[in-house]
Amino acid sequence: MKGLTHFDAQGQARMVDVGEKAETERVAVAEGWVEMAPDTLARIRAGQMGKGDVLGVARIAAIQAAKRTHELIPLCHLLGLTGVEVEFADRSEPPGIRCRVTARTRGRTGVEMEALTAVSVGLLTIYDMCKAVDRGMRMKEIRLLEKAGGKSGVWRAETGAES
Questions:
Q1: Which residues contact 5 (CB under 8 A, 6 or more apart)?
Q2: Contact present, 108 and 88 (Cβ < 8 Å)
Q3: Where are the beta strands (DSSP E) in the chain?
Q4: Of 104, 108, 103, which Cα lies nearest the Cα of 150?
Q5: 128 catalytic residue (yes or no)
Q6: Degrees (nearest 5) of the Cα angle 61, 152, 78?
Q7: Contact yes or no for 63/118 (Cβ under 8 A)
């Protein structure tokens, strides 16, 4: 391995060659949330949005996004994900919905981008399905909470993570 960098000898962007890295179990957890009007949250929970099951559709969208991250983020590797878990939880103050994604693989590179992409697309899907009644929704605090696997071991965000 000649150094993990996204630049070649001429300074041009390239995909990092991870061929010599060992395969290990890798996991990443990311989260974010969408702030919305209290009535919007109530309508989602009551199943009263005109486009259907908002969180069910957002869950599928998040999983699909994790599986296609390599198509969306330049220079990301195609990963064989072994699992993607998507959880939604209400936030009361300010009102909204939190999305937390855990992505897993056995491979040579981490799954942080897959978890972050899944959260982002899950939240965007909630926005899309609810925008007719609440265009003022805002996606907030999308971030990596933890990662494990590979040479760097375990990393956890220090503050602000919800349980």
A1: 16
A2: no
A3: 24-35, 81-92, 95-107, 138-148, 155-156
A4: 108
A5: yes
A6: 35
A7: yes
Candidate from 39-43, 54-58, 108-112, 113-117 with smallest mean pLDDT: 108-112
pLDDT digits (tens, 9 = 90+) for 102-111: 999 998 777 9
In this prediction the pTM is 0.85
Which one is catalytic: 8, 53, 90, 128? 128
Residue of 76, 153, 152 lying closest to 115 (CA atoms) = 76
Task: Count CA within 13 A, CB hemisphere, residue 81.
Answer: 23
Query: What distance lies between CA 106 and its chain's CA centroid?
Result: 18
Burial of 118 by CB count in 10 Å (0-12 exposed, 13-18 middle, 19+ buried)?
A: buried
Residues in CB range of 90: below 8 A, 6 or more apart? 41, 45, 96, 97, 98
